[in-house]
Input
Amino acid sequence: SQQGEEDPQALSIQEGENATMNCSYKTSINNLQWYRQNSGRGLVHLILIRSNEREKHSGRLRVTLDTSKKSSSLLITASRAADTASYFCATATTDDKIIFGKGTRLHILP
Amino acid sequence: GAGVSQSPSNKVTEKGKDVELRCDPISGHTALYWYRQSLGQGLEFLIYFQGNSAPDKSGLPSDRFSAERTGGSVSTLTIQRTQQEDSAVYLCASSFWTTKRGGSDTQYFGPGTRLTVL
Output
């Protein structure tokens, strides 16, 4: 699998439910970032979690990081139609590269 | 500036032509990145700049691709003799600072340039 690989590739849930996306990586990292992309254009930064952190919150977003498993999860609580987008994780590796995954396409059903 | 801007927003060209894509980063951001995103795919790193220098050119797909940045601000990505497989959205991002090579600060993305090679 690739560095910064998200799963699932696609996710459809009902509005109001929680959405969980996962990201796995292979090499050592300085931090891991989650981004959102609407309509295949520019990405918007959501949250950054450093390698010495285990959990971070931002509004309805909760990100966890498990460096022993080389994985991260993004939880969106009480989903809304506006959350429909693609979500990408990006790893900032210790050999100074930024690597994006292929993303999870999230669709919130009304 | 208010954000990262890119121009043109859309570019349609014929196979074999050269194209230039422009990126205006956020004022004061020292690091600038170029990515390519094919339809439904993730981001493919192309190149990044720290100031005017490009420490890492490893992501450029071929010698038809080149990029420059002058004055520590605007960057131009040039694709020579375009091929149909070059069709993609080209995204630019900037960040306030970067570590030795690839950076780990929050990146702010532009809206992208959609390139179509006929």
Q: What stands out?
A: Chain A touches chain B through 25 residues (CB under 8 Å).
